[in-house]
Amino acid sequence: MPTQGSRIYPEVLGQLLEMMNERLKQLREDFDREIGLVTTETEATELRDRWVGRKSGLLTAEMKTLGKLTPEDRRLAGQGLNDLKTYVEAGIERLQLGFAAGREAEQLVRERIDVTLPGRRIATGHLHPITLLREKIEDIFVSMGYTIEDGPEIETDFYNFDALNIPSNHPARSWQDTFYLGDHLALRSQTSTVQIHAMQRRQPPLRVLAPGRVFRRDTPDATHNPMFYQVEGLLVDRGITLGDLKGTIQEFVHRMFGPETQTRFRPSYFPFVEPGAEIDYSCFKCNGTGCRVCKGSGWIEMGGSGMVHPNVLRTAGIDPEVFSGFAFGLGLDRLCALMYGLDDIRLLYENDVRFLEQFT
Ligand code: DAH
């Protein structure tokens, strides 16, 4: 006697299971054929959706029909279907793992680093040749007890001219030579202005070195630039003579260019010194025999110098009866051009990296 519900007679059940097994076998064969045709990752995803997709998967639909059976029949029929589902999922997973591995391998090839390639050079900065030269000069004078002094680049007439004993009719005062910023203000045209600041700040004994920029209304050419560099020296103490100036300059050129370098002093006029002299030193290139650097003369002009004028000392508040001193001033640009064999000083101000990176 049949029980209630969908209880099926054993012989019917037998047939039913056989049919199901047949169907499962067919499905498995279909799947094997389809998976064999998959060549891309997208196709693998489509295959998965088609077979075990949550909504419209083939096996998902198949599973749903089990719900209509009694628990016992469902167990029997479900077993085979579950096995097939596991089989399908495992197949697809294997396929996807394969694709992922391929993708990774591809990426490794694409992103491979060639460790034998030369590295990129990191650009490092350099000091400007003028700076290198200035530091060399500073080092020499600092070792002789000088201190480095600074002064303004914009000065009043007092510092530019009056205190330096420059008469009111002197050509240096003319607007054609000096950059005026107003009636009584101008860009300094020489670092000699720092002498006055230094003497006003401190009483003797004084040993001061003042490097800095100066400005003149010169038309730029191979040997002129409206802005250039000077180094000023000043020493004030009791009993200072011309001999001290000569000895100091001699010591400087020895250290700067070598012990065989000689100096000579030619009388000259500068309003702020008395007596005044121009300094020459024997050519560092040919040692005085004459070459291209010294234009055959064997001597190179270094700059001006002299004994500080009593008027200058007095104006700066120093008693010329008690103290005396010497001063000197040299241009850095031409010296730099000579030392590095530059044929145009404007190269120093163009900031062309190809030029600048040659100096270390
Ligand atoms: N300042 C002068 C110039 O620019 C150079 C100079 C001459 C400086 C004589 C001095 C000096 O200190 O005593 O041409």
What Rg do the Cα atoms give?
Answer: 48 Å
CATH class of the largest domain reads: Alpha Beta
Task: Enumerate how many helices there are, as a single number.
Answer: 11
Q: SSE order in H/E notation?
A: HHHHHEEHEHEEHEEEHEHH
Give the strand order, joined by hyphens, for the main sheet. 1-4-5-9-8-7-6
State the assembly state of the protein chains: single chain
The major β-sheet equals:
7 strands, mixed
β-sheet strand percentage: 15-25%
The CATH architecture of the largest domain can be named as: 2-Layer Sandwich
Q: What gross morphology would you assign?
A: rod-shaped
Number of strands: 9
Structural class: alpha+beta
Distance between the termini: 111 Å
Arithmetic mean of pLDDT? 91
Poorly predicted runs: none
CATH level 3 topology of the largest domain: BirA Bifunctional Protein, domain 2
Helix content range of the residues, please?
Answer: 40-55%
CATH level-four homologous superfamily name of the largest domain: Bira Bifunctional Protein, Domain 2
- The domain count comes to 2
Bound molecules: 3,4-dihydroxyphenylalanine
Polypeptide structure, described:
The protein has eleven helices and nine strands. Helix content is 42%, strand content 18%. The radius of gyration is 48 Å and the shape is rod-shaped. It is an alpha+beta fold and 360 residues long. Helix 2 packs antiparallel against helix 4 (71-110) and helix 3 runs antiparallel to helix 4. The structure holds 3,4-dihydroxyphenylalanine. 3,4-dihydroxyphenylalanine binds next to strand 7, strand 8 and strand 9.
